[in-house]
UniProtKB/TrEMBL annotation:
Gene3D superfamilies noted in UniProt: 2.40.50.100, P-loop containing nucleotide triphosphate hydrolases
PANTHER family: SPERMIDINE/PUTRESCINE IMPORT ATP-BINDING PROTEIN POTA, SPERMIDINE_PUTRESCINE IMPORT ATP-BINDING PROTEIN POTA
Protein name per Swiss-Prot or TrEMBL: ABC transporter ATP-binding protein
Annotated source species: Phytohabitans kaempferiae
Membrane-spanning segments: none
């Protein structure tokens, strides 16, 4: 076990049926102690299967799950000490809040006074001490999820698993509860694995996120890096909206320059950032996030593009505009306090913070642009 390492997942593979599709092709990651690690991806990508294997609800075809250096796969789920917070709360409907939170403690034979003290501590932490005598049906969805979190943490675990815990809540409640969950996890210092399909949740709650497609992890990084420096166009599209241009590298190395093709306008030469130093002639795509596109009444330099505002939507803190450039449209996000965009305006666009993503190698699986471990028909490497 490496220093600071708490959980290590090694080459997990899972196939449902001998001829069925691979749910997991080769999944591995390491989580240091105290980190909130997220698994994010579309439905069917393998994130819930991975969490189920860690919890003990799913048996893998191959791989290891090590906690503090010990492989827990042979250990029954109820003896792993890894409580889970489910998306449907999974509270006992006939038990009051304090009995739900203290249930596992009582099962362990914990003295009544200790149970009462611990339950009170947990309910204060999630802000529900005044509702300890309520039944679950008397609580809102957000309150029920707070109870589920308190119950998971009551036994003092070192690791907690969260399976789409906010998916059953409305948008405003999700915003509040994701802040509460982050707060509670930081205060307790537990290591957490948080599964979600929602980018905002993953970015708000997690220290690092693994983005999954097609049974593999395409990229693992802190949220700002995932957003600003995606490893593939699949990751870029999944974690936010983008303006994407075909490009070819004309100056390589650490400070690359590319030519981008803007349909109906021509070629524009642009300095870019890149994860690796690309070679001259390498082809790929340039990604520019909507908030990195600026509007001006006059061209700032030779890279500015002429455009016409087709639509402008006021969204409170931001304006979202669609601007026609040549025969394509670009998405632009502006501050609603000072910037102006009115339908029909002629404008000039500047492209800032452009990032170059190389073409995927031929034969790569969707979402995974780097080489994967080959699999034979039986699932062994």
């Amino acid at each position: 076990m490496r220093a600071g390492e708490h959980i290590r997942v090694v080459d997990l593979r899972k196939r449902y049926g001998r001829t069925g599709p691979w749910a997991l092709r080769s999944v591995g990651f390491t989580i240091p102690r105290g980190e909130v690690f997220g698994l994010m991806g579309p439905s069917g990508c393998g994130k819930s299967t991975t969490l189920g294997i860690i919890a003990g609800f799913v048996t893998p075809d191959a791989g290891q799950v090590l906690v503090d250096g010990r492989d827990i796969l042979p250990v029954p789920p109820h003896k792993r000490g890894l409580p889970m917070v489910f998306q449907d709360y999974a509270l006992f409907p006939h038990l009051r809040v304090h009995d739900n939170v203290g249930f596992a403690l009582k099962l362990r034979g914990t003295p009544a006074s200790t149970v009462a003290s611990r339950v009170g501590e947990m309910l204060r932490m999630v802000g529900l001490e005044h509702k300890s005598d309520r039944l679950p049906e008397q609580l809102s969805g957000g309150e029920q999820q707070r109870v589920a979190l308190a119950r998971a943490l009551a036994i003092g675990p070192e690791v907690v698993l969260l399976d789409e815990p906010l998916s059953n809540l409305d948008a405003k409640l999700r915003q509040q509860l994701r802040r509460d969950i982050r707060d509670v996890l930081q205060r307790t210092g537990v290591t957490a694995v948080f599964v979600t399909h929602d980018q905002a949740e993953a970015f708000a709650v997690c220290d690092r996120v693994g983005v999954m497609f097609d049974g593999t992890i395409a990229q693992m990084a802190p949220p700002p890096e995932l957003y600003r420096r995606p490893a593939s166009m699949d990751v870029a599209r999944f974690v936010g909206e983008s303006n994407v241009f075909p490009a070819v590298v004309v100056e390589g190395g650490a400070a690359p320059v590319v030519d981008i093709e803007v349909a109906g306008h021509g070629t524009v030469r642009l300095p870019v950032a890149a994860a690796d130093a690309p070679a001259v002639g390498q082809r790929g795509s340039v990604l520019v996030r909507p908030e990195s596109v600026g509007l001006a009444d006059a061209p700032a330099d030779g890279t500015a593009l002429p455009g016409r505002v087709e639509r402008a939507e006021f969204l409170g803190p931001v304006l979202q505009a669609t601007v026609a450039v040549g025969d394509r449209t670009l998405l632009v996000t502006l501050s609603s306090w000072g910037d102006r965009a009115v339908r029909g305006d002629q404008t000039w666009l500047s492209l800032g913070d452009a990032f170059f993503v190389p073409e995927a190698p031929a034969g790569a699986h969707p979402g995974q642009e780097r080489e994967r471990v080959p699999l034979d028909a039986g699932g062994a490497a």
